[in-house]
Every structure is written in structure tokens, then in C-alpha cells.
Amino acid sequence: MLHRYPWSESSLVLDVFTRHQGRVVLVAKGAKRPHSNFRPILMPLQPLSLGFSGEQEVRNLSSAEWSGGHVMPQGESLLSGFYLNELLLKLLAREDPHPELFDVYKDVVKILSGGFEQTLGPLLRTFELLMLSYLGHLPNLTCQTATLEPIKELELYRLMPEVGLAQAMVKDIMAATDSSALREVTEPVAWDTQSFAHRSKTQTLSGRHWMALSKALQSPNALTSTLRLCAEMDAPSRQALQSQLRQVIHFHCGLGTLKTRQFMIDIQAL
């Protein structure tokens, strides 16, 4: 279950993600009543076996059982799970099946329930990459989107919502570092991939990183391969990837800041 809304005094409207029918909206009649069989079952981030009927856009929930497998995530992992749910609510059309994305979501939530909070950053980046890939929002990461020119390992590239993957220009880098000395220079730039300071300021990644991500996303076990790659990234590179993915996600969501993301920021500030 991705989200639930109150409907009348005793019922709920559920937004659920199913493997074979995609995102479906259901009415759970009487679910708010103290002795309802639905009441202890309809929890977010839990594997459920649901039965429903009807031909309308909003179906009637007829049965619900907990499928077992893991407990509810806690702490920051719980907030991360709500973030995943909001992404799916914003980016998935109703009744548009994505079985591969469903399987990845199920596995990621299971990892979240294990309480390994040190892996949250790489895990969220992995889910974002796979989600964008399965939904067709991620361009080919082995070439520049506009020209189809193959990327080079030691040069720097940016992932931009409207443009796709493009080579970083000196004028972009100078703008990001707030320098006026080379603001008019527009030649492509190639720097040492170990230059942490430049990467963190310009929000770029090397061609080597993008090619490795492309290979991981296309591997038979994409979740494990991409998670391992994101976990092995140095902190500035991971931050650069996060910033670029966030811009792409916000562009396709049509939003500034996602509610769960802003809530996580506010909690961390406290």
C-alpha cells in the first residue's frame, strides 16, 4: 500500500502498487471500524495479498492478507520507505503494470526493514536509477543524448532533465564555483576523476562513472550490481549523482520538493 485516505466515517481509499495491474485505487469499506478485519492488515510498506472487484476506476476491496516476509521499517528507514511511496504515487500512471519495478520496490523495502541505515544513501540512489530506467525517463548513459557521441572515461558529464546526458563545459563549472575569470570560455573540460572538489562543486560525474552505472543497470541482477556500485562511490561523487537524479525526478513529478524529502530535511535540522 502506497497511501491511504479517509473516506466517510468508517472507510478508507487505498492507493496500492500491484505487480500485474500497476497502481490501483481501492475502497476498503468499514476499514476504520475497531473490529474490522482490514484494520490491522492495511499498513504501508508491507507485502499484502489483496482481492478486489469492480469495473470502475475505483475498485472495492474484498479481502486482504499479510503475505509475511519482513517487519515494518523503523526510524530513517521508515521515512525512506515513505519517500519511495511518494515517488511511485507521483510517477506511476494508474493501471500501468511495471512488474520489474514492483520486484525492485519489494526487495528495496525488505532491505529497509533490516535496519541497515548506513546503506540508505546508496539504496535510495539505486532505486531512483532503476525506477527512472524502467519508466523510460533515464537516457542512454554511454553517449551524449543530443549528439549520440560516445562519452569518454576521463571527461565530465551532467545529467539534465531537458537535455539528457551532456558534456560539462568550462562556463558551467565556473558558474558553479562562482568565478568570473573563465566565465566566457565554452570549451569542453577533462579533469582527473579523483578531483573531489571540482566534482562536488560542479555536480558532474566522469564518463567512467556513467558507463559503469549503465553496465550495472543492464546486468541480470541490476539491483545488487547498482547498489554495490553506488556504495563504492566516494562521497562527492554520490552527492553529485544525488543532485542530478533529484533534478530529473522533480522535473518529471512537476514539483519543487517532495513532501517526504522536505520532512526528512526538517527532521535532520532538528
Topology (elements, then pairings):
Blueprint lengths: L2 E5 L3 E8 L3 E7 L19 E6 L4 E9 L8 H17 L7 H15 L6 H15 L21 E5 L3 E4 L2 H8 L18 H7 L2 E2 H11 L4 H11 L2 H19 L5 H11 L1
Parallel strand pairs: 3-5
Antiparallel strand pairs: 1-2, 2-3, 4-5, 6-7, 6-8
Helix pairs in contact: 1-2, 1-9, 2-3, 3-7, 3-8, 5-8, 6-7
How does this model look, in words?
There is one protein chain. It contains 9 helices and 8 strands. It is an alpha+beta fold. The chain folds into 2 domains: 64 residues, OB fold (Dihydrolipoamide Acetyltransferase, E2P); 200 residues, Recombination protein O, C-terminal domain (de novo design (two linked rop proteins), Up-down Bundle). The strands form 2 sheets. It has a 5-stranded mixed β-sheet. A 3-stranded antiparallel β-sheet has the order 7-6-8. Helix 1 packs antiparallel against helix 9 and helix 3 crosses helix 8.
Residues in helix, %: 40-55%
Contiguous runs where pLDDT drops below 50 for at least 5 residues: 171-201
Structural class: alpha+beta
The ordered H/E elements are EEEEEHHHEEHHEHHHH
What number of domains? 2
Query: What is the CATH C-level name of the largest domain?
Result: Mainly Alpha
Could you give the distance between the termini?
29 Å
The mean pLDDT is 85
The CATH topology annotation of the largest domain reads as de novo design (two linked rop proteins)
Strand % is 15-25%
Largest sheet: 5 strands, mixed
Q: Just name the CATH architecture of the largest domain.
A: Up-down Bundle
Specify the overall morphology: elongated
Instruction: Assign the CATH superfamily of the largest domain.
Output: Recombination protein O, C-terminal domain
How many DSSP H or I helices? 9
Assembly level: single chain
Q: How many DSSP-defined strands?
A: 8
For the biggest β-sheet, the strand order reads 1-2-3-5-4
What radius of gyration results from the CA coordinates?
21 Å
